[in-house]
Amino acid sequence: MAWGKIDDKLYSSPKWMTVSKGGKALWVSALSWCMAQLTDGAVTKQTCFMLGASTKDARSLVEAGLWDETPNGYQFHDWLDYQPSREQVLAERESARQRQQRARDKASSSRKRHGVTNTVTHGEVQPLVTSDVTVPPTRPVPTPIESATGRKRPARPLSPDWVPTDTHRAKASEHQINLPAEVEKFRNWAESKDERKANWNAAFTNWLIRTAEQQPRPPHTDLWSKEGPF
């Protein structure tokens, strides 16, 4: 999870005070969206609509000097002077992943030193207790899932070779979800939590469904409330 920074004096900034109410709401929402998608402050016109804003709201930010216009939409002014770049966020995530992996490796090594091993005697496997210390499991044993053939499917960690399916791509396109960003967050979540699943494709499908449900919806427009010639 990445965090966007807001100056504690923003409320009294001369530029901010000239922005419309809708423009201020758009600026805050777009800041959150940019940090989630790691766009380095780039905001598309479609994103503004998705966040419930109008062209007038965006124009208010441009006129105040808080946004710059671009061929594809808008750009937060001087983004990298105040917010971390995409490269910085990804580097910090990788560093955290490596720290977590080292911690898991250390814990695994400790369990092997103080746990139970097996030795073979006359063709039979006999337990050999190397210590009186009982080490509790670090996580509950996953319950296997039955497949269509009736056989149990063991839960496994997410494979490094796992990629989204065509069904995932279609669902992401349907809901206008940034698929590469969600894949990265899904993989970071699975690795940081040491998750194990019997069906990772189904798990990612549920992930996309939750992401779609959490996306801001365009404001409702009541066509019957508009004034007209009739």
Describe, in plain words, how this protein is organized in 3D.
Strands 1-3-2 form a three-stranded antiparallel sheet. It has a two-stranded antiparallel ribbon with strand order 4-5. 13% of the residues are buried. The model has no long low-confidence stretch (mean pLDDT 82). 47% of the residues lie in helices and 12% in strands. A hairpin with a 2-residue loop joins strand 4 and strand 5 (124-129). It has 230 residues and is α+β, with helices and mostly antiparallel strands. Helix 2 crosses helix 4 (55-64). It is globular and about 65 Å long. It has nine helices and seven strands; from the N terminus they run H-H-E-H-H-E-E-H-H-E-E-E-E-H-H-H. It folds into three domains: 10-82; 86-133; 158-215, no CATH class. The chain starts with 13 loop residues before the first helix and ends in a 16-residue tail after the last helix.
Q: Major beta sheet, specifics?
A: 3 strands, antiparallel
Helix % is 40-55%
Radius of gyration, Cα only, in angstroms? 26 Å
Mean model confidence by pLDDT: 82
Overall domain count: 3
- Strands of the biggest beta sheet: in what spatial order? 1-3-2
Element pattern in H and E: HHEHHEEHHEEEEHHH
Provide the structure class: alpha+beta
Determine the N-to-C terminus distance.
Answer: 51 Å
Number of separate helices: 9
DSSP strand tally? 7
Q: Characterize the overall form.
A: globular
Low-confidence stretches: none
